[in-house]
Specification:
45% of the residues lie in helices and 14% in strands. The chain is an alpha/beta fold. It has a single domain, classed as Aldolase class I (TIM Barrel, Alpha-Beta Barrel), CATH 3.20.20. The longest helix is centred in the middle third of the chain and has 21 residues. The structure holds 1,3-dihydroxyacetonephosphate.
């Protein structure tokens, strides 16, 4: 059985006081989370604070991005080893906001995946189509291309070290969620694509859904056979909502 993972991607939100309040709120409700593994991905500067406050809990930490470089003259970048140094388990790679706003292409995303993996992090590898691509009937082709960037270059064994997140771009921050059927279709496609390379890896890898997942739609989405949790944006900024999503994975 794949253990569900619910990861909060805080994006560029928060302040010291808001982060403190959010973390304390999450901690206070963790007893109700029976099945899911829980992770939070704060902005880099709040990672030490989160690490201190979450010490002794099972909540994992992750970075929202990672450099392709190991270190050196790369102003503004954060290396995978630095995330490990602060106790991070995960690093998000290939988020659509990185792809569209910061020009990260499939090659860069694949490099980030590999750098993170080699440093001992679990990459949360994001894929997803835009509305235009969905309406143009190219969803599967787009997802296949994004997946193959890692699969063809580094192989299924490398992919096995990560988690995949399907985040339809048109559902991110829009309040417009993929229906459970729409999401399941793409998740099954992703698992099938991985299975064509390695069946055991496909069976074991967790595929998260992301895109306006909220307390009121989380249970139905996570009940789908190929949806193994969520990557949560907006709803991860409110402890009660985030916890409600985490407990929606209880079995
Ligand atoms: P929302 O949950 O705000 O739609 O964001 C999803 C997301 O981008 C998580 O990485």
């Amino acid at each position: 059985m794949r253990q569900p993972l619910v990861a909060g991607n805080w994006k560029m939100n928060g302040s010291r006081s808001a982060v403190g309040e959010l973390l304390e709120g999450i901690k206070a409700g963790l007893a109700g989370v029976k099945t899911a593994e829980v992770a939070v991905c704060p902005p880099y500067v709040y990672i030490p604070e989160a690490s201190t406050r979450l010490a002794g809990t099972a909540v994992a930490l992750g970075g929202q991005n990672v450099s392709t470089h190991a270190g050196g003259a790369y102003t503004g970048e954060i290396a995978a080893s630095m995330l490990v140094d602060f106790g991070c388990k995960y690093a998000i790679v290939g988020h659509s906001e990185r792809r569209t706003l910061y020009g990260e292409d499939d090659t860069v995303v694949a490099e980030k995946f590999e750098v993170a993996r080699k440093a001992g992090l679990v990459p949360i590898f994001c894929v997803g189509e835009t509305l235009e691509e969905r309406e143009g009937g190219t969803t599967e082709a787009v997802i296949a291309r994004q997946l193959d960037a890692v699969l063809d270059r580094f192989g299924a064994a490398a992919l096995a070290a990560g988690v995949i997140a399907y985040e339809p771009v048109w559902a991110i921050g829009t309040g417009r969620t993929a229906s459970p059927q729409q999401a399941q279709e793409v998740h099954a496609f992703i698992r099938g694509r991985v299975a064509a390379k390695d069946r055991a890896v496909a069976e074991a890898i967790r595929i998260l859904y992301g895109g306006s997942m909220k307390p009121d739609n989380a249970a139905e989405l996570m009940a789908q056979p190929d949806i193994d949790g969520g990557l949560i944006g907006g709803a991860s900024l409110k402890a009660s909502d985030f916890l409600a999503i985490c407990t929606a994975a209880n079995r």
